[in-house]
Amino acid sequence: MTDLELKKTAVEIRKGIITAVHAAKSGHPGGSLSAAEIFTFLYFEEMKNLDPKDPKKADRDRFVLSKGHTAPGLYATLAQKGYFPKEDLKTLRHIGSYLQGHPDMKHIPGVDMSSGSLGQGISAAVGMALSAKIFHDSFRVYTLLGDGELDEGQVWEASMFAGAKKLDNLCVIVDNNNLQIDGAVTDVNDPYPIDKKFEAFNFHVINVEDGNDFDQLRAAFAEARGTKGMPTAIIARTVKGKGVSYMENSVGWHGKAPNDEEYETAMEELRKAGEELG
């Protein structure tokens, strides 16, 4: 895809996020929106052998949403990719819907691992990467963490193991939007310097100054794919709530749904953003 096509796709994914969370009257828009470019690049450019008609294809690259509460972002991406109808996004968190509040690998096409309990996703991803090494499989494993999620000790246990086992088929991405549920990450439990911590666990680290920029993401993922002998951590600085003006850099939109008026405002902004791209 060209950068223009990727940008247009990210706008559509943001529309899906807002649509789903508004319909559910609950959910997590802030961290879903901050990662829209990351989701877009992974599913429409980076990950190989994806086939919505064959979601369990053996040689597909795997993705684990470790920060599982941002399921609206993943669901909107999967719908955009064609794994299920976009219309189903409106059933998010409804009784009887397969689109639960956190990813469910048993019922949602395209979800490679159930997640939601913070820290467990990266652990599962490390296990997948180790399995690929043991059985000489060629697929790569990607996992997306929140910067607040780094508070979990399990993240570092998994990272230590990944570094020790030289899992160069593993790519950890940290959505570094600087906000978590209770406030700024520096105020809650300061994780910095994130890059030095991953380096200490024998990761190749790539700092991305603007994780909402496709050129920078493309360069980072190319470097990660070319890194041998150690896992890679991409630390991507993003804007929480990116793309919806009143949500940007606002901790209050970590886990709150827009009302009808806020929904209309957000969708109008995203419609204009799409039109500006041509």
From TrEMBL:
Molecular function terms from GO: metal ion binding; transferase activity
A Pfam family per the record: Transketolase_N
Keywords tagged on the record: Metal-binding, Thiamine pyrophosphate, Transferase
PROSITE patterns: TRANSKETOLASE_1
Keyword Transferase: yes
Start and end residues of each Transketolase N-terminal domain: 10-267
Domain of life of the organism encoding this protein: Bacteria
Cofactors that this protein relies on: thiamine diphosphate
Family the entry assigns: Belongs to the transketolase family.
Designated name of the protein: Transketolase
